[in-house]
């Protein structure tokens, strides 16, 4: 087989040193979608060395912020130029619908523009009043250095942009490792960075697996920061590997997110319809493969049966199929491994006493859903409790569990009874109650009477085992900067501390 050049080092596209390759599968039919280079330790070391040279000797860290911001805006324009192409790549690689792919491209575009505007609008530094006119004191920001980025398979392009845009505008260089399951849109994005005029060596890409590529990046002594988005187990390994070199670590490790619905939110026909519709959206968009998915419905007992019955009825009508086909509302799971995991979670829930209201199996194959595809029906599991694995653990599949409460305090206790703390929502027609409950929820993002929207100017991240650090917003830029205090004595004189 001819060499596949998806590794990008020092401005050059190349094959893996070992010559190894990997097939990327289309989750809709399990057929080969593309072949990519399978990088290893040698490729990773070469990429880090290129990033190190570009940072220590290259022009990028010293490039004026306005010029770095201008490059980000050019990348945004190129993304919009290639919108349909990139959306199709993302849809076919991840299984999500084409419309979701388009939304992702637009969100990535917005992220590049936001960080360009944020950095360009800042002052040169924060002047500190030292209490005397003889001292000029200022706090400035400088780039961290060489950044390693490991991104997940569910939103590969989006998660790459949340790291790349702030890292670049801050003046860093980087090496990125996308998931081996969905690397194709990241490859395209790195090509656009080069087209936009980014100097060679600033952006480096190694396609390959977490072990060895991700592991090597985590431990590498020439990496100054590692940003990881993915599962808890892998994130823990990243932090452990990074510890001996005391590099900066940012981790976004998912969530088990509560969607709390009070009865008063369902008091009118419109309110009921909206809450049910949003519960479907919270749980089943992208087949539930979303870190912030509202996979735990916590519903007031008085409306539970009516709400869950309607929810299950609508869930059964969700149209599954290949994401690029018109009319399809939900695509396949990303891999056979994810399908097996979903089946295992449902089986364990039923064994532990959950009541299956809909789904719970693979759909019958048809022209839109080949038998070899990784499809699973949207599944609603009623009568769940906190001792169940399916309630405690992040399933990352089209599974919605249902718990109930009778009092506000009970609702808050249930919602916070998780080791994660990424996101959650509260639904109520009582504004005071909704805000009161939102204030008590220990989650990094809380929606009131909505689910899933986010803003690039607002920080994203979680409490507890959902990780450390934040992406997006001003804090998302600060992750990629070091803070330096420069104290200048304008009239130096002897201190005379020592008599001699």
Automatic annotation (TrEMBL):
Q: In which pathway does it act?
A: Amine and polyamine biosynthesis; betaine biosynthesis via choline pathway; betaine from betaine aldehyde: step 1/1
State the taxonomy lineage: Bacteria, Bacillati, Actinomycetota, Actinomycetes, Kitasatosporales
Membership in a protein family? Belongs to the aldehyde dehydrogenase family.
Q: Which UniProt keywords apply?
A: NAD, Oxidoreductase
Cite the Aldehyde dehydrogenase domain residue spans from the record.
14-486
Organism of provenance: Streptomyces niphimycinicus
Q: Active site at which residues?
A: 252
In its UniProt entry, what is this protein called?
Aldehyde dehydrogenase family protein
